[in-house]
Amino acid sequence: xxxxxxxxxxxxxxxFFGLAAAVQVNDPDSELWIVVYLVPAxxxxxxxxxxxxxxxxxxxxLCDLHSAGCIVxxxxxxxxxxxxxxxxxxxxxxxxxxLGLLIVAIWMSLCRSSAKSPLGRVxxxxxxxxxxxxxxxxxxxxxxxxxxxxxxTHCKTVI
Length: 159
Fold this sequence. Notes:
Layout: H1 2-22, H2 30-49, H3 57-84, H4 93-113, H5 121-143, H6 145-149, H7 153-156
Helix pairs in contact: 1-2, 1-5, 2-3, 2-4, 3-4, 4-5
């Protein structure tokens, strides 16, 4: 049961990362953000298909390299955001980008830790919460007209 749930969470996250890459098409720096989301989409899809892929050296290296980049990006965005944010961070484009990088880094960490041993109850619960978080966040943002009103033009034409 736990193995199936872990695979399902990975397939759900692969779909999320793929969708997150797709909605970047109108972004001024879309090339960067498409890569930011397509790499974990591919890595996560592989875990969903075959969880033991996390033992593969190439998979681990790509995961580690991408996670390190996301962590550096998170630090840079957090500094910029907290130095200049004027309202709720989700109303700021950098805040949404920061949240995306955090989701990638957390998910890649969960995948990476599953290589050592299967996720226990706490790890699996965290995986379910993290897998549902992006979809719940998108639903909240989509339904919140006030938040969407403050978006830049390139964000309004995607959804």
